[in-house]
Amino acid sequence: MPSNAVEPTKQGNLLEIELTISGGMLGIQNRTLFDFKTVPATLTVKKKPHFEAPEQTYRMVLTEEQAAQIKGLLSSTDIAAWSHAPTSEFVVLDAPSVTLHFRVDRKPSFYNISDIQELSQSNETIRQALMKKIHEFEKLAMQSPPTSTPE
User: Which of 24, 61, 127, 129 is the most buried if burial means most Cβ atoms within 10 Å?
Assistant: First the structure.
């Protein structure tokens, strides 16, 4: 398997995973992007902890093993079912919005899942494991100085 090959989901080969967290009382804006289209795969983390804070960008090149750790969590997963899951009737209005975005190589090529969508127990377990792994990689990327900060 070539180094840029990805384990397929039921919708096709995984090209990108993006986690966005925004809003809330502080107005945070965080974006974490795993790009599996590049060789080697890359991780970009953009953090803005509140409305008036400057955005900081961190970048990291992923080893094949690190990329496989993320992709492996979604191997054979039906992410289309995630994006059609019903939403919860309980919403915390001042909490940040958390959304996972998935891009694959087949049509439709883009899927979203919000934190207010209710997944089956098995899919919720996968989502929680994915979120945990994403946050682990964010911490790794942020051990280095930011690659860019606005003036």
Answer: 127
Per residue in 3-19, pLDDT (tens digit) is 444 456 778 888 999 99
Give, in degrees to the nearest 5, the angle at Cα 143 between 140 and 147: 105
CATH of the domain at 121: 3.30.1560
- The answer to whether the beta carbons of residues 45 and 143 sit under 8 Å apart is no
Identity of residue 55 = E
| 24 phi, psi to nearest 5 deg | 75, 180
| Number of structural domains found in the chain | 1
Domain region containing 41: 8-141
Residue 121's Cβ-side half-sphere holds a number of Cα atoms within 13 Å equal to 0
Q: pTM, whole model, 2 decimals?
A: 0.86
Cβ(101)–Cβ(18) below 8 Å = yes
Q: What is the DSSP letter of 110?
A: E
- For residue 147, list its beta bridge partners: none
Cβ neighbourhood burial of 13 (10 Å; 0-12, 13-18, 19+) = middle
The DSSP call for residue 95 is S
